Amino acid sequence: MAELSADEGTRVVVLTGAGLSKASGIPTFRDADGLWEGYDVTEVATPHAWARDPSTVRRFYDERRINCASVLPNPAHFALSRLQHAVGVRRCTLITQNIDGLLQKASANDVIEMHGSLFRLRCEADLDHPRVGVFGPQNPGQACKICGAAMRPDVVWFGEMPYDMDKIEQAVVTCDLFLSVGTSGIVYPAAGLSALAKANGARTIEINPEPSGGPFDDVVRDTAEAAVPRFVGRWLKEDDDD
Questions:
Q1: Averaged over 26-53, what is the pLDDT?
Q2: Domain that holds residue 59
Q3: Among 13, 28, 31, 40, fewest CB within 10 Å belongs to which?
Q4: What is the CA radius of gyration of the chain?
Q5: Model pLDDT, residue 3
Q6: Number of Cβ atoms within 10 Å of the Cβ of 130
Q7: Under DSSP, is residue 93 helix (H, G, I), strand (E, B) or coil?
């Protein structure tokens, strides 16, 4: 990978996908042993599924939540957290498609969770009503304190719009470097962010053992846990102990 300049004007946006967390023991979406194996996605990850059978949906996310609660961040999570701490949140925007909370567990200051979080619930009727934290199985009778509607997992399901798209697009169009880590390049609108960054003059880099074929200037065919710490070390001009 070519050397990078980390001068005071440089802004970096990092988009992370399931490949970031694979080394922590969380299967990626399309692995043979992946997260959705044994479940028809229409039974657990759509608004219609929630309306039809909320108990099955709750059970699915309860299982994922309990599993993720015991999972630890891997070196890639810690490296991205270190990068954001070093250059500040104004210059380093971390965006994740993951709902596992591992970047926060690695002490990242600010993470945009465009697909929500396993560890929050939201009102099924109104996105603007307060979220609540949840760290074990969801209470089936839990209701919104504002309107009394049922609380559902605060996860963006198929057919729903990802969170914070205005904030994400503003960061992408103003960045100098766009780094994509462990994303499939298939799911939109996240898949279109690299093209948006490139169209606005950013250098685009992908880290992925199976490159997505997106519009990247450089592709690093490697795992997140191996490549991201190297990238951050060069960016911050840290000593290489290898």
A1: 74
A2: 33-70+117-155
A3: 40
A4: 18
A5: 46
A6: 11
A7: strand
Please, are residues 60 and 155 in contact by the beta-carbon 8 Å criterion? no
- Give tens-digit pLDDT for 54-93: 999 999 999 999 999 899 999 999 999 999 999 999 999 9
User: Is 115 labeled as catalytic in the residue annotation?
Assistant: yes
Tokens at 197, concatenated: 């960054």
DSSP β-bridge partners for residue 5: none
Q: Which residues contact 82 (CB under 8 A, 6 or more apart)?
A: 232, 236
Active site residue: 77, 85, 115, 129, which one? Answer: 115
* Same domain (yes/no): 104, 139: no
AA letter at 53: D
Beta-sheet pairing, 203-207 with 218-220: parallel
Considering the domain architecture, whether residues 62 and 93 belong to the same structural domain is answered as: no
pLDDT band at 1 (very low <50, low <70, confident <90, very high): very low
